[in-house]
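Need a sequence for this fold. Nothing fancy.
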């Protein structure tokens, strides 16, 4: 199939065409020509005012709950939601049933997702059954398609096991992904510890639970001379530690969620369980520090932490609700709405370029003769998410009814056009 994209602004820091407005001809999944006013026949012509294109976006940390929890999400529904959100590639955490701690589960995910609109990259478990006690067979999983390793929403508590994992993945230049959270500090906390939690009468999770693990894990990564990605960064103190580590040239990278940039703990006064997440929403000072860290480059990429839950786990009392919200379809728009002074080039680095650099993947640069893995979007289009728009199996998001700025329009990936 021949696809012609007309008058698209190319946002791709890795491309010689970056910043140009041009026509793009794609044939059989390959970018054939890029130029002004291309007069060629095409099976599909895409022409829309304000259209922008970039390398396909990639999400480094999310949950598709398949195998084992298909009532929450499946690989199919998750990939459809990802494509609608502008993602061509996503990395799924291993907190499934069975846990993705062996090559059979990794192979299942790889095989089942071959013909889906987004490529699904499995993240293998660091430890057997994500129990944090004994290393899983990471090398076997790597050979089967695991792109990096993490215990997902059950962060590694043991420094001894984590340092062994960091040393082990060095053998194949692998990456460990860690959600920094010391579970021994107020493990029953329901939200950020502070004035708001006191007023609401809810047990708090202090910022120190994250800060301690960020400091510890940075030291362990330096000791092992290995690569560590810290995801879900939510407090100002963590950012300072990460900045210091980067100055020393350690292999540290980090990501933030869109919702930590948008909301703060004050928003929880309505007891909206869709805002119950881990790490919890922090205070306004932390939120401002996170926003600044995105613009100044201290934070490397955006990770949606898309975690679907059904109504039985969300439409309950706040203390009984599970942590997590869906976010693939709103991730770009939320970041673009919050950081309106930030350039589209910077946002594309956060969504498309840096996640791949962290994982050692090639960036699908927009230039002639390259395979087309492209996201189409309009950065000034205003829109409001409705329940009908959501392709995920569950609707646990606080963004329904919220006007956002910037809309994903579709993707071209694996010789498939996914327009919305």
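Here you go.
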């Amino acid at each position: 199939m021949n696809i012609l994209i007309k008058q698209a602004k190319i946002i791709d820091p890795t491309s010689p065409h970056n910043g140009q407005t041009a026509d793009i001809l794609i044939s059989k999944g390959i970018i054939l020509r890029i130029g002004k006013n291309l007069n060629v026949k095409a099976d599909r012509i895409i022409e829309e005012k304000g259209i922008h294109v970039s390398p396909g976006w990639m999400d480094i940390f999310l949950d598709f709950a398949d195998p084992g929890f298909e009532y929450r999400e499946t690989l199919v529904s998750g990939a459809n939601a990802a494509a609608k959100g502008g993602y061509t590639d996503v990395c799924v955490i291993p907190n499934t049933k069975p846990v993705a701690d062996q090559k059979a589960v990794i192979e299942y995910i790889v095989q089942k997702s071959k013909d889906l609109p987004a490529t699904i990259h499995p993240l293998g478990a660091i430890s057997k059954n994500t129990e944090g006690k004994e290393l899983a067979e990471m090398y076997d999983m790597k050979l089967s398609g695991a792109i990096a390793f993490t215990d997902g929403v059950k962060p590694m508590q043991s420094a001894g096991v984590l340092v062994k994992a960091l040393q082990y993945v060095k053998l194949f230049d692998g990456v460990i992904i860690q959600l920094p959270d010391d579970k021994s500090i107020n493990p029953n906390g329901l939200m950020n510890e502070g004035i708001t939690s006191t007023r609401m009468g809810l047990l708090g999770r202090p910022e120190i639970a994250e800060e301690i693990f960020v400091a510890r894990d940075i030291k362990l990564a330096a000791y092992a001379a290995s690569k560590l990605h810290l995801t879900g960064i939510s407090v100002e103190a963590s950012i300072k530690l990460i900045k210091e580590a980067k100055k020393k040239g350690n292999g540290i990278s980090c990501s933030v969620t869109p919702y930590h940039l948008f909301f703060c703990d004050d928003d929880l006064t309505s007891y909206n369980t869709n805002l119950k997440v881990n790490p919890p929403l922090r205070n306004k000072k932390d939120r401002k520090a996170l926003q600044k860290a995105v613009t100044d480059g201290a934070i490397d990429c955006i990770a949606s932490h898309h975690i679907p839950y059904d109504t039985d786990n969300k439409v309950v009392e706040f203390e009984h609700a599970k942590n997590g919200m869906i976010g693939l379809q709103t991730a770009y728009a939320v970041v673009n709405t919050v950081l309106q002074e930030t350039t589209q080039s910077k946002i594309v680095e956060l969504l498309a370029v840096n996640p791949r650099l962290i994982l050692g993947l090639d960036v699908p640069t927009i230039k002639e003769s390259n395979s087309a893995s492209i996201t189409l979007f309009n950065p000034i289009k205003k829109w409001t998410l409705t329940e009908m728009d959501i392709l995920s199996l569950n609707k646990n998001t606080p963004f329904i009814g919220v006007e956002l700025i910037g809309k994903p329009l579709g993707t071209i990936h694996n010789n498939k056009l996914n327009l919305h």
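For context: The longest strand covers residues 374-384.
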